[in-house]
Amino acid sequence: MDLVVVKTIIRIVLDILSTSFITKYDNLPSIIFRFMMWCKRLNRHVTMEHIDREGYRFSYFSRGKPGSQRSILMLHGFSVNKDVWLDTLKHFPQDLHVVCVDMPGHGNTTRFLQESYTAAAQAKRIHQFVEWTGLNKNPFHLVGMSMGGMVAGLYAADYPSEVCALSLLCPAGLRYPTESEFFMRLKELMFSKDPSDSTLVSVNEKEGEKLLQLCLYDPSFVKTQLLKGYLDDQRPHKMFFVNCFLDISSAQSRYNLHDNMRRIQAPTQIIWGRHDKVFDPSGTDILATAIPNSQVHLLEKCGHFIALERPRKSAHLLLEFHNSFCDNTRNEKAA
Ligand SMILES: *[C@@H]1O[C@H](CO)[C@@H](O)[C@H](O)[C@H]1NC(C)=O
């Protein structure tokens, strides 16, 4: 069948699902969530890949080939997976080489319970991935959101020669004067029950939903259900998420970006939702003061989940930044 026909059919099916079926049910069942992601991957023409070395697997997808432009590596946040970037990819040119990897323990990347998931340990793991795939043959543009932003910042500090540009989207790991409401409630939810209980979000659906709504500026039904879909996918791995959360919020990891941001040399772009209730947007000032070559973008009508709430705007900002710092041809001409 013609690809255009296939796409049209998929779009119609999605429309029917999202307008009639989904709104009738309280829960977006896991199977529909998976189907939607499968369709999105198909629509974005990404290639699903994995690499196995030393008994460890990294799962990732990519699009385009390394060429005149630098590659982009994208790191997602806590408790989601590489699929959160699919809406961003919609606004990138098809030939731009983009790699989205499942973070350690997330998605289909190996999940070892006994391994450390501090920011530093994760940055080391990501460096393994970069070496194994040869992504660092040339310096690349590193993008990270939330937990992935903290890891990306540390990576840029630890491996300066590999990163030609850095984009931090509402990264974790900074010192705020007060703990956000979100974190206090997340902690309560995660530790209020027996950790072997497989529900990541509270039994009390309302509480869980309220927590998800704190992540969004506009907690529309579809967006809230999407976030729930990611969480539902991970219910069986609650023990891992508790461990991971404890590691990234441990004393040695919690402010790791803050304590290392002065070592970041790459030109840096800082993007934050003005209405972020998970990490306060005042983080922009903390970073901009410490990183000499940096620029700040505050997004209006945007909460914590930038990739979900403002995919087009954030993609355009990423691309603009990429084009000014990562164009090989331009660099050669300048040399
Ligand atoms: C993980 O692998 C399964 C089986 O191949 C696949 O259906 C699923 O989409 C993958 N999930 C992610 C996040 O890559």
UniProtKB/TrEMBL annotation:
EC number: 3.1.1.23
Transmembrane segments: none
Compartment list: Late endosome membrane; Lysosome membrane; Mitochondrion membrane
Limits of the AB hydrolase-1 domain: 72-311
Topology class, membrane: Single-pass type II membrane protein
Main location: membrane
InterPro entries in the cross-refs: AB_hydrolase_1 (IPR000073), AB_hydrolase_fold (IPR029058), AB_hydrolase_sf (IPR050266), Epox_hydrolase-like (IPR000639)
Pfam families linked to this entry: Abhydrolase_1 (PF00561)
Catalytic activity: Hydrolyzes glycerol monoesters of long-chain fatty acids; 1-dodecanoylglycerol + H2O = dodecanoate + glycerol + H(+)
Purpose of the protein: Lipase that preferentially hydrolysis medium-chain saturated monoacylglycerols including 2-arachidonoylglycerol. Through 2-arachidonoylglycerol degradation may regulate endocannabinoid signaling pathways. Also has a lysophosphatidyl lipase activity with a preference for lysophosphatidylglycerol among other lysophospholipids. Also able to degrade bis(monoacylglycero)phosphate (BMP) and constitutes the major enzyme for BMP catabolism.
Family, per entry: Belongs to the AB hydrolase superfamily.
Name under which the protein is recorded: acylglycerol lipase
Species per Swiss-Prot/TrEMBL record: Phrynosoma platyrhinos (Desert horned lizard)
Lineage: Eukaryota, Metazoa, Chordata, Craniata, Vertebrata
